[in-house]
Design a protein that fits this description.
The protein is an alpha+beta fold and 101 residues long. The protein contains two helices and four strands. A two-stranded antiparallel ribbon has the order 1-4. A two-stranded antiparallel ribbon has the order 2-3. Strand 2 and strand 3 form a beta hairpin. Helix 1 packs antiparallel against helix 2. The longest helix is centred in the first third of the chain and has 17 residues.
């Protein structure tokens, strides 16, 4: 996401408008952003703690939202709305249902 600083308020409002639309449609579950002021940690099975993250996620920044949608096609449409609002591509993932959760 490369947006001039002066345009960030406009992009933020556009993204929040899509989230408001998702809430009004009853498909919004939750969302948030990564606190970039707090460094990530890797915690091993034995409890050992090290600073850092997986190499493939070292560039991860921004936020996410979880929507409960009826199909992949509908999910793509919502991702497109968010991409337009945020002015950058959106990664689309699908959660697997866990009957224990």
């Amino acid at each position: 996401m490369t947006v001039p600083a002066g345009e960030l308020p406009e992009v933020s409002e556009a993204a929040h408008n899509v989230i408001r639309e998702a809430k009004a449609a009853g498909v919004y579950v939750f969302g948030g952003g990564l606190n970039e002021d707090v460094a990530p940690l890797m915690v091993a099975a034995d409890g050992t703690v090290e600073g850092g993250t997986y190499p493939q996620t070292s560039e991860l920044s921004g936020g996410f939202c979880v929507l409960d949608l009826p199909s992949r096609e509908v999910a793509i449409a919502w991702a497109a709305k968010l991409a337009q609002a945020c002015r950058c591509p959106q990664e689309l993932r699908e959660f697997q249902f866990d009957p224990e959760s």
